[in-house]
Amino acid sequence: MGQFDVITSRAFASLTDFVMASKPFMHAQSIIASMKGLIPADEIETLKNEFSCEIIELKVPRLDEQRHLLLLKQI
After folding, report:
1. Quick one: which H or E segment has residue 46?
2. Residue 14 neighbours by CB under 8 Å, 6+ apart
3. 3-state percent helix, strand, coil for the chain, nearest multiple of 5
4. How do residues 21-30 score in pLDDT, each as one tens digit?
5. What is d(CA 35, CA 33) in angstroms, rounded to the nearest whole number?
6. DSSP 8-state secondary structure symbol assigned to residue 33
7. Of the candidates 73, 71, 74, 75, the residue with the CA atom closest to the CA atom of residue 9
8. Longest CA–CA separation in the chain, Å
9. How far apart are alpha carbons 44 and 21 in whole angstroms?
10. Residue 74 burial (CB count, 10 A)
11. DSSP 8-state symbol, 74
12. For 37-51, what is each residue's pLDDT tens digit?
């Protein structure tokens, strides 16, 4: 099993499930990049003791729905 600098997901599962599935592939400086529609505030709250989360709002042409990129880093 390898360890990776960036682990990405789009429409995979809950953020907490994605983080748990990613942990075996992470090293201390790894970043988890997760594409989400609405910001999953409750899931981010659950992870706050272990991960910092940067939220980037995305603008998708011809789409009126919200899209966000979440970048999680181990604290």
Report:
1. helix 41-47
2. 40, 43
3. 25, 45, 30
4. 999 999 999 9
5. 7
6. E
7. 71
8. 40
9. 16
10. 15
11. E
12. 999 999 999 999 999
